[in-house]
């Protein structure tokens, strides 16, 4: 089956981070809805074609029930209010069933998993690869159209084993990932890592997961098959309580840079 994420132009994905649900119980559901729709509209009006709705609720185990409920409700609302945007899902919990369940409920086009193969030490403790569970549950949902994006040696964690990044990327490709996310400690490191993976003959789409700006996005799009961006587009003057966190002008300038050949 063709995957919508990779059907057309190389995807530009804006990460729409939601405030941690567990630490913001004073916020109403209506506030979260306004927050999500307002920022999604900023991305859409700038011409960004994809967003990744990102839960940031820290948990030692599976995603909490309110995470599932709120992510599904907010995702459905974005679909209704900003229908031109492609949608992806990521949950902070080490829980592929949660991410895929929300994607299924919202009609999302992809999920992103931070530890797909091997093992990693994260800020929340050790994590084992989720590949087998992810692929199995997607099949149980009968949703092969939901693309699986797998981070390979995510820079926010430390690998627990000594395999090289190309070896881990090959693991991920063979384990069912539809696309690989590679992000180094710097932009130049990211490009070197992508080169090493490609040098081993791995042909799965590769997306850059961070450190992309309007100054380097043309080079990023030439080297990779898509990019994820967020912090480079955020308002510099926004207070934590502000609903509008992303800057319309920065988003527009970023997309202008995307259209300039490297």
Would you mind describing this structure in some detail?
The chain has helices at 29-46, 65-81, 96-106, 131-141, 165-174, 187-199, 217-223, 248-258, and strands at 12-17, 50-54, 86-90, 110-113, 119-122, 125-128, 147-151, 158-159, 179-182, 206-208, 227-229. The protein is built from eight helices and eleven strands.
User: Count of helices?
Assistant: 8
What value does the average pLDDT take? 94
Rg from alpha-carbon coordinates: 17 Å
How would you name the oligomeric state of the polypeptide chains in this document? single chain
Essential attributes:
single chain, 262 residues, alpha/beta, three-stranded antiparallel β-sheet, 11 strands
In short:
It is built from 8 helices and 11 strands.
Strand and helix map with partners:
Elements (H helix, E strand, L loop, with lengths): L11 E6 L11 H18 L3 E5 L10 H17 L4 E5 L5 H11 L3 E4 L5 E4 L2 E4 L2 H11 L5 E5 L6 E2 L5 H10 L4 E4 L4 H13 L6 E3 L8 H7 L3 E3 L18 H11 L4
Parallel strand pairs: 1-2, 1-11, 2-3, 3-4, 4-7, 7-9, 9-10
Antiparallel strand pairs: 5-6, 5-8
Helix pairs in contact: 1-2, 1-8, 2-3, 3-4, 5-6
């Amino acid at each position: 089956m063709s995957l919508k994420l990779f059907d057309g132009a190389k995807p530009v994905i804006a990460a729409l981070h939601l405030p941690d649900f567990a630490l913001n119980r004073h916020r109403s559901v209506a506030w979260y809805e306004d927050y999500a729709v307002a920022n999604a509209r900023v991305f859409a009006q700038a011409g960004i074609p994809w967003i990744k709705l990102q839960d940031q609720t820290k948990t030692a185990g599976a995603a909490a029930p309110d995470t599932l409920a709120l992510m599904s409700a907010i995702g459905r609302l974005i679909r209704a209010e900003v229908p031109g945007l492609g949608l992806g899902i990521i949950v902070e919990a080490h829980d592929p069933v949660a991410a895929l369940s929300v994607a299924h409920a919202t009609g999302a086009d992809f999920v992103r998993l931070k530890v797909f193969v091997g093992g990693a030490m994260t800020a929340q403790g050790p994590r084992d690869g989720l590949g087998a569970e992810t692929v199995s549950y997607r099949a149980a949902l009968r949703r092969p159209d939901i693309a699986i994006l797998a981070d390979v040696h995510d820079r926010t964690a430390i690998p627990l084993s000594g395999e090289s990044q190309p070896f881990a990327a090959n693991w991920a490709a063979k384990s069912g990932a539809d696309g690989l996310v590679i992000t180094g400690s710097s932009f130049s490191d990211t490009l070197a890592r992508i080169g090493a993976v490609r040098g081993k003959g791995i042909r799965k789409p590769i997306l850059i997961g961070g450190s992309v700006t309007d100054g380097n996005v043309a080079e990023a799009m030439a080297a990779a098959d898509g990019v994820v961006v967020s912090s480079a587009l955020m308002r510099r003057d926004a207070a934590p309580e502000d609903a509008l966190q992303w800057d319309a002008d920065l988003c527009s300038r970023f997309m202008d840079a995307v259209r300039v050949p490297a």
